[in-house]
Write a structure and sequence with these properties.
The protein is elongated, with a radius of gyration of 23 Å. The strands form two sheets. It has a three-stranded antiparallel β-sheet. The protein contains ten helices and six strands, in the order E-E-H-E-H-H-E-E-E-H-H-H-H-H-H-H. By secondary structure, it is mostly helical. Helix 6 runs antiparallel to helix 7 (170-183) and helix 9 (204-219) runs antiparallel to helix 10 (227-247).
Length: 248
């Protein structure tokens, strides 16, 4: 997640994320995931689930204080707060910052409601450009798994819709899938689609390399290709052997 501060001219932006401590970034990630804001009770319960019951907000307010100091330094005194709050409700100030998650969400929404294939294609390509990996990938909090999986699924659904549109342009479809594969290296469906397009384009030798890469990637997380993926690989290999036999 990149969180950028709008400069005075409104066009230039400075990345604030690197200047903040992990817990400060986690608070901002929570507020980024709740664009319209959240109650303090929900935020603190999520981020500090083991906080003493008699002092539920101490850590939150201490983190906000540290965040303001870090922001003051990062923005050279221009701002010390990028949140707005009223009666226990907190949100990020959209007049001061932009969040790549919001831009990605806007692109996903536009792609779903595109009026034609041309617009959908442009928006999904923007989605792929904006999706740099898991939401708040530098943080390890358990609550992030839900938003990460939801976002990952939305991105892959958008890509799948575009791949269907690009059936008649296999080179472009394959190039798109290769870009997405880097961002979702353990998603078997992507590798299966890549292999199908490679066969369609006559890149038979590349199919074995694709499945070898998948096997290597899955081994990193102690997994192996599913029966569906293995069956597809066997089918494509048999088809290749049959084609070579016909040519002889």
């Amino acid at each position: 997640m990149r969180l950028t501060h709008r400069q005075h001219d409104g066009d230039n932006h400075a990345d604030l994320s690197a200047a903040l401590a992990p817990k400060q970034r986690e608070v901002l990630a929570y507020l980024a995931a709740h664009k319209d804001g959240a109650r303090r009770e929900s935020l603190t319960t999520t981020i500090w689930p083991d906080a003493p019951k008699d002092r539920p907000y101490n850590s939150f307010h201490a983190t906000l204080s540290q965040l303001r100091r870090a922001l003051r330094t990062a923005t050279h005194g221009a701002h010390s707060d990028i949140t707005i709050h009223s009666d226990g409700h907190y949100a990020l100030d959209r007049n001061l910052i932009t969040v790549d998650l919001w831009q990605l969400s806007d692109a996903l929404r536009t792609s779903r409601h595109a009026s034609d294939d041309e617009q959908r294609r442009a928006e999904v390509e923007r989605v792929v450009d904006l999706y740099s990996g898991d939401f708040a990938a530098d943080l390890s909090a358990e609550w992030l798994e839900g938003p990460r999986e939801s976002l990952r699924r939305d991105v892959l659904d958008a890509v799948s819709a575009l791949v269907r549109i690009l059936r008649g342009e296999p080179e472009q479809a394959l190039a798109l899938l290769e870009r997405v594969r880097v961002l979702a290296p353990y998603n078997e469906a992507i590798y299966r689609d890549i292999a199908r397009f490679q066969v369609h384009l006559g890149q038979q030798d590349a199919v074995a390399r694709t499945f070898a890469l998948l096997t290597t990637k899955l081994a990193e997380i102690d997994e192996q290709p599913s029966e569906e993926t293995s069956a597809l690989y066997d089918l494509l290999q048999r088809s290749r052997s049959a084609d070579q036999g016909d040519k002889r």
